[in-house]
Specification:
Elements (H helix, E strand, L loop, with lengths): L4 E5 L8 H16 L3 E4 L5 H12 L4 E6 L14 E5 L2 H11 L2 E4 L4 H15 L7 E4 L6 H12 L11 E4 L2 H9 L8
Parallel strand pairs: 1-2, 1-5, 2-3, 3-4, 5-6, 6-7
Length: 187
């Protein structure tokens, strides 16, 4: 089944390893090549800027959603296909979830983790059934993956987290998982 759009959650900072930006650039190019609209937080810095700029540079469509409070912090992207300015973070997250057929979570900070766990929680509660993919560039999420496994083993999860989250190590794996009809987790 062809995906029309994907919401990407990632950092507004570049991170320490060059591979983070490399994978963001590759994912942006690949989304454009597959004619998949990128929906993201609307920033022009860090990984946000990298994925958006590469998608746009390769003819892709990019929709950014940014709350008023972050206009200065994340330096909203002025060259997007569409930039939606919303009142607050809650409205931003709601639109990000609604506009994407699936979600990709790349390296990022507290906000990225908040978005990941809200998507997983909503999936568990059957609020949505969107495919959620985690880009584990350079092992960035290894500790988090181990913690989710601990939550499962200690019986704090209602189902195996691997049924809800596809873990990939590269942008190419993300594209393959995105286009697959069923999740294929490489773990």
């Amino acid at each position: 089944m062809q995906k029309r759009s994907v919401t990407v959650f990632c950092g507004s900072r570049a991170g320490k390893l060059p591979d983070y930006l490399t994978e963001a650039a590759e994912l942006g190019k690949s989304l454009a090549a597959k004619d998949i609209t990128l929906v993201y937080g609307g920033g022009n810095k860090g990984m946000m800027g990298e994925i958006a700029n590469n998608c746009l540079a390769n003819g892709g469509k990019v929709i950014g959603i940014i709350p008023k409070i972050l206009l200065k912090w994340e330096a909203q992207h002025e060259g997007l296909s569409e930039l939606i300015v919303v009142e607050d973070m809650h409205e931003r997250k709601k639109l990000l979830y609604e506009l994407g057929d699936s979600a990709v979570v790349m390296p990022g900070g507290n906000g990225t983790l908040d978005e990941l766990f809200e998507m997983l929680t909503w999936n568990t509660l059957n609020i949505h059934n969107k495919k959620i993919m985690l880009l584990n560039t350079g092992g960035f999420y290894d500790h988090l993956i181990a913690h989710m496994q601990t939550m499962l083993e200690q019986e704090y999860l209602y189902s195996d987290w691997r049924e809800r989250l596809v873990v990939c190590n590269t942008a190419a794996e993300i594209i393959s998982a995105l286009l697959a009809d069923t999740p294929q987790n490489p773990l």
